[in-house]
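Hi all, long-time lurker, first post. I run a small reading group and we've been trying to get comfortable going from sequence to structure in the token notation. Rather than ask abstract questions, I figured I'd post a concrete chain and ask someone more experienced to write out its structure so we can walk through it together at our next meeting. Sequence below, copied exactly:
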Amino acid sequence: MANKEKGLNTKLYAVIVFFGILAALVLITFTTFKSRYTAFHPDEVARSYVDTIVQTGDGYNAYKNALISKNYKYGDYIREYFIYPVIYRDTDYQPGADRGELKGYNDDEYIGEKTANDDGSLSGEFIAEMYKIYELLIDEYGWDNYDNIFRSYFNALVTIREQYFGDKYMTDEIMFTTLESNVRTYGEALTGTEEEFDENTGVQISEKATGRYQAKYGEDYKFTTTIKSENEIDAKLHIGLMNEDKLAKYKVSKEEIKDVKSYTVQVTDEDGTVVVENDITVVKIGQSWYVDDTTADMRALYLFYR
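-- Answer (accepted) --
Happy to help. Here is the structure in token form:
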């Protein structure tokens, strides 16, 4: 009998090709995800933190890249430690505790006539009044000391809202809406605004205004943030000096931190002139990096244009 010619095992080949393609797709997907997901890149975490603040003065949202957001959705942390203590201020509420049957000022029985009948006009006046408070606090603290910002701001919010509406009604929606509106207005005060008209009615909804950045750097200014350098840092020493009380609130232990890096982030205008630079320390937990907001000093980013 003639020897049977050995041919290609098509089934085995198909299996090999299938798993080869699958492995390649997994690698491509992971690489793409990693390149897009800022938290995997310590330098980009540091740069993004500075960029968020510089572009619109938004230290509030910059914290989404920081340790404060490691084990919380950022808004949930604010609710737990700053908003609920206001809404449930006459109860035994403690941060992290179950609110259960606690009765707060978000109960409908506290809704007064002005709140019930407001078409948004009074809320707009109230938000504009709160902006004065917000601006004063940012001028004094920047966003480094968020404890002082949130506590001072929300305490003032309770008092001023009662003056405008004549009731004690308070919800997290009211508090977030007012704060985030003020954050946006502060950014517009820096960047300037253009005329805008409602596309349906043609009514003008915003006017052209020159921002503080435009006044100093020109109407068409442009800021670019880049990593100037990676700095030497003693990771063990830095971890040892981190604020343990804040870490406990963040539900983070020092033992979880596997690495520490420090970067100098530089901000330049369109001509390449350096307008400000700031050192940022980032820490690694698992595969992700976070700005160490327990030691961050961003004051320079709120002062460079003055």
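A couple of things your group might point at:
Residues 10-36 form the longest helix (27 residues).
Confidence is low (pLDDT under 50) at residues 1-18, 20-36.
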